[in-house]
Write a structure and sequence with these properties.
This protein is an alpha/beta fold. Helices cover about 35% and strands about 15% of the residues. The two termini are about 40 Å apart.
């Protein structure tokens, strides 16, 4: 902040409260739509959209961070979902470009990567791959694969926002724990928060890794620090690894868990009354009258650790998507369940702000059976 800007505030020439009220009035009168990320429950909790928010998504290795980042990227660039002008600075700090391209081909073709590399594409596949690669080369996206911090990162973001004046700008980082020390991570997040305050058209989507102690809660055994208890399986703020500032700066923190990756046939125990939207994922006969155990196979669970603009404390905090619907019948037989899976989701009240029919972006139906057995999601 410059001295001139400080003087304007002290002299009453700049009033952020009035500016905020004007933004709210604009939403009321013009129905200005917030930016959607394509995940129904996440968009529900983003009351004013992803605009100018700091959104964090955490997971253990091989539990879908990079896949979720790719799906959010597609949602941001979907003109039907987000008709406004959007620019994305994508900091892919972990994976090689070749790996990213190969994973996108896998998703587009519904073929495993080894099979893709075994032969050339036919004419039909060339068209599909061309469309997939074209999305990676979208001019609205700047891909930056070098790990930078401090002044160079601030310079990069400043130039990116200046180049895209008048657009909704987003910085996506996959993932923050490439930075090795707590000091590095906290300083980086402090800078992100400062940039978010500097530019009202700038938002951050940052992925991070959960600490390994959560796996001790999942696995139990002699080496576990606590007795095995399914009620403790959900990630919490104590599982945020190697940083204190992440929780402080976040507007929303969600985590993803694919129980089968750590060979859990049963996941956590939840209240039946508060989680009726998960009924198709209950294990029949498990639990008691008030609680139910959730199926672990062929599922990804999202759990919300922090929601800054919480409109209703009674909203559920855990949500689920089936990874591969094509094998779900076999999964049901494995659990000896009489419950028929449905597409039922919790019914959210209309927000009245840019309401657009949304197809949940976390749709893993294009993944092959190896992913459903926990062999996919190769992100570290």
């Amino acid at each position: 902040m410059t001295r001139e800007e400080i003087d304007e505030i002290l002299e009453g020439k700049s009033n952020e409260v009035i500016q905020a009220c004007e933004e709210i009035k604009e939403i009321q009168t013009r129905g200005v739509a917030g930016v959607k990320l394509g995940i129904e429950d996440l968009d529900h909790f983003l009351i004013t959209g992803a605009n100018n928010m700091m959104i964090f998504g955490g997971a253990r290795p091989s539990m879908g961070k990079t896949h979720t980042a790719s799906e959010m990227k597609d949602a941001l660039l979907d003109k039907e979902l987000n008709p406004m002008d959007i620019a994305l600075l994508h900091l892919n700090w972990e994976m090689q470009i070749k790996s990213t391209v190969l994973r996108d081909m896998k998703r587009a073709l519904n073929r495993n990567m080894r099979d893709i590399l075994s032969r050339e594409f036919n004419e039909e596949e060339k068209a599909i791959v061309g469309e997939s690669v074209g999305r990676l080369m979208d001019k609205r996206v700047v891909s930056f694969n070098h790990v930078i911090e401090g002044d160079p990162f601030e310079y990069l973001v400043d130039k990116f926002v200046a180049k895209n004046k008048g657009k909704e700008c987003f910085v996506m980082v996959d993932h923050i724990h490439i930075l090795l020390t707590k000091v590095q991570i906290d300083e980086f997040l402090f800078l992100c928060n400062r940039l978010k305050k500097r530019y009202t058209n700038l938002g951050f989507i940052i992925f991070f890794q959960l600490g390994r102690t959560i796996e001790q809660r999942w696995r139990g055994g002699a080496d576990a620090k606590m007795k095995l208890n399914p009620k403790n399986f959900l990630p919490n703020s104590g599982d945020i690894y190697n940083t204190d500032s992440l929780y402080q700066f976040a507007d929303i923190i969600f985590t993803s868990v694919i129980p089968q990756v750590v060979d859990m046939d049963e996941y956590t125990t939840v209240s039946k009354d508060r989680n009726k939207h998960l009924e198709s994922h209950f294990i029949a006969g498990a639990g008691d009258n008030k609680t139910a155990k959730l199926k672990g196979r062929n599922r990804v669970y999202r759990n919300y650790i922090k929601i800054r603009l919480n409109d209703n404390f009674e909203d559920p905090r855990i949500y689920c998507d089936v990874i591969n619907p094509s094998i779900e019948e076999d999964i049901q037989k494995m659990y000896y369940s009489d419950i028929t899976p449905t597409k039922e989701k919790p019914s959210f009240p209309p927000s009245g702000v840019g309401t657009v029919p949304i197809t949940p972006i976390v749709d893993f139906s294009t993944l092959n059976n190896s992913s459903a057995r926990g062999e996919g999601f190769e992100d570290k």
